[in-house]
């Protein structure tokens, strides 16, 4: 993500325009008719409002002309008052019909834009999510969660702004500005240039103010993260703060961050608030200028300059309508300029949205699949469609033959090397033999590579050298989904999902019956606490887990693994974040779960891995000791020191 | 937190006559929150005043323009007027107009500035007040809230309040004033036409209010739904390993698609209502202009016909401007309504924090000295919630002499931590009393008590900053020598010195870049720097190796013999050399005695000892 924003800032304008164009194309691709109709209505609205300006001009002269005639003729002769009234009425009728058409057009185009806008956002949102679900784990390891999240929240919000307000406004207002300008020039080039001059000033002011305020809001955003971070850290460490009576210092620290946050917010808001009065009053000054210049022209009967050349002196009607035009013109310009920030923000947001949509997916060229099977009388494996509870690997070979291997959970790592990039290997020559039903433990300091090994087994990452075999099959040949179906993981961070407790257990096997889920909960030792909750298995989980303790959540994730019932299980520090009060409870659940499965355990407390079939002591990506608990104690090496407490596990 | 909101909604649905009470609640909440305005009161008052001035300027400007137009008009029609005179006339009006425009510009920009300062400053103060309040929370208060919930309240909720406040001091002042002034001016200028406003404005106001009131509950509902959707996304990002392990991406996609479509449909429903407001507004504006132009035009023609000038084209122009201004301000007012509705739930959540009473407070006339480190538990019982059925701690009686070393052993859930948390008054006893240094703990100044009773909690936290910064938590004025001395006592000096930058080595948030054992030793050193009379270690050496553990205890014996030490441990070896050991079982004291005594007489202690020595039998 960091890289993306860098690229973006380097090539901002052209990239931003490209992204906008892509959005417009996407909108039209999804709803070609709707958006064409919107364009049509936009044209009508624009024309209607312009027509009204013109009619207003005629209206004014229809009132002033008789007046003028009247004066010129000294009120004596020749004015047909009835005709003047009828003319006025007709003009008003024409005007109101145009208004009615305009209102109807506004109603329809806004409705379509609102509806289609939501639909387009939804399409992009779903595309984002669907692509995200298929991204490799490395993407999530290298991108901050908050940043991915803000694509769904902030960026989608700016997209909404862009699709439903900014783009239609720009589409409607830019032609209006151009047409108005030509109309003004049509009436008088001199006056037109005055308007143009003031418009330039208005645009410059907007740009200046916009730049300052958007910079401040950006800074404010950064400081918001800081404020949140500080609050989060201090509130979660609140008990320590209390024990050390450190409240005053902590408040002082908070005030400092709060003050910086305030300063940027204040400045940004000042410039935003000041923009409208500034533009409005520049409009007033323009009015004054037009009146003076117009007055001079009329006073000295200066010939007017229009696009048709030098004509008659400016009439009062021209000036009056010019004043009206200029008001429309400045109003439109300030409307467009108020969208300035939205366009900039929108481009940045769209860039990130499209980046997430375009991010390359996790590749899978596995072709060995997991199938339900049964055995015939000769103990041959027969593939079948129904659930039999027995599974086999279906392995098609290059020569067109098929072989079936029963799923047992036999895992072999054979001289495996691995690095996150090609230059820095983090695992060296790892060989592990886990026969079906065995329990293998990994011990070692943080960063020794324990978790990395388990990430290789289910192909979250691909190895650089060596081989990993599952039931004798190279895991690169196995379809990733099927490989992962055969392995369950219980992690230190429980990662439950919003929904009921039952939903969360069932996550391990979607078609599990309630009975199966309850049986799994019993196995994991979770049944007791669940039944004691007021709503039992239907208790909804609250996002921050306020209603369940960390230990209880861990029990649920164990139950989830139990219901999946895979032959291979990985327990990655499943109990290390649990306080001692609940660890004993969990340990029983885990022991029950491990029975009859191939298990890889990464454990903090060595007492929990004593009964492993093999213990691997890892250091800097190498296995430095291996053997059973007894073997290793006898060896009096690193494991012995760790176990007796003479060496600290770091 | 979410459940609070949900249950609140449920309540109001069930019981509609609570609505009135709720409005009063909002008012109470607003009154409390407004107290945070403090130094920004000046700006908060100046801003509406300046806005009023700006409104007056803005309302005079169309009037002057109408005169200007009339002048232009008169002079176009009447050739007898000298061009120079006419120009002077125009300049005169421009001369009036220019200061008005400048005045309006200055007032507008200043009010913008003041309202920004007032609103953003107000929200700064609210955040400060909330944070201070949270810092005053007792452990019982803290247990009530989840961290993330508090962070949202301090940031997002306060932001909504800020937005509402800003729109109130700007638009809610400007809107009605603008409408009133425009009306007055219109009636002065042309009473024959101004009645049109009296009809159009209320109708438009009612319609827009209706649309807003109708649409905003849907919006609030969708926002909640939208939050839930994003929460699922967040769960997927955080739990991507779980999703992939259980091969649930297709399932998640389906789920997401369904929920996203539900959100979309509700948004569309709300939007369909909301988009009505713009055509309604436009319709009102145009309707008004047409009526004014027709009637106004007729009046002008009539007045010419009648040979007088009671209605002019300038009047017509001004009336139109006033009309458009009024209508525009009505739609601004509906925006105020939207932002106030948005902020209504937020302000209640802010209010809840601001009025949460800390359950433990300093006594009046507190004692500022702790004489010695003696501790007496007298018939102490404790439960975490008043309503709880079971006591977590029942009838505890202990006398601890100053300078004694006490070990505490017991199974999980036997209330060891609960027992020691009562000594520095992290929680208050439910029954009985605790006497430290001869006085009930409730008589001490809390800071004095906690400085003298130094507690290393089971759930240790280091903060981002250097090691030195972290250790100084114990004593802000500690010299480098003192810090190093404390680190030596806690056996932390070895590994600290192994860092290139030693005591300036930066600790990351939560202390993630040091190992568990290192973290525990830093926490002990931090507690030692307080020079306490009583030191409590709540399972604080569990990740430290046994040798170092012994060295730490030896240091305690040798260098701080006068300090009362209470050590909770899982390992027998951590407590066996204590003067006395308390065996806890199920919220009560099972036995007290020395290692040898307990080994002979206490069953729990024996079992514990056997299981641990068996494990280490080979050593």
Protein described:
- The complex is a heterodimer of chains A (650) and B (619).
- Chain A has 650 residues and is of the alpha+beta class.
- Chain A contains 20 helices and 18 strands.
- Chain A folds into three domains: 2-358, ABC transporter type 1, transmembrane domain (ABC transporter transmembrane region fold, Up-down Bundle), CATH 1.20.1560; 369-406; 411-644, 3-Layer(aba) Sandwich (Rossmann fold).
- In chain A, 62% of the residues lie in helices and 14% in strands.
- Chain B is an alpha/beta fold and 619 residues long.
- In chain B, strands 6-9-10-3-11-12 form a six-stranded mixed β-sheet. In chain B, strands 2-1-4-5 form a four-stranded antiparallel β-sheet, with no helix packed on it. A two-stranded antiparallel sheet of chain B has the order 7-8.
- In chain B, helix 2 (19-34) crosses helix 11, helix 3 runs antiparallel to helix 4 (83-135) and helix 3 runs parallel beside helix 6 (147-189).
- Chain B is elongated, with a radius of gyration of 37 Å.
Q: Based on Cα principal axes, name the global outline of chain B.
A: elongated
What low-confidence regions of chain A span 5 or more consecutive residues with pLDDT below 50? 1-11
Continuous helix count of chain B? 20
Q: Number of folding domains of chain B?
A: 2
CATH superfamily of the largest domain in chain B: ABC transporter type 1, transmembrane domain
**Radius of gyration of chain B, in angstroms, nearest whole number:** 37 Å
Count helical runs of chain A.
20
Q: What would CATH call the architecture of the largest domain in chain A?
A: Up-down Bundle
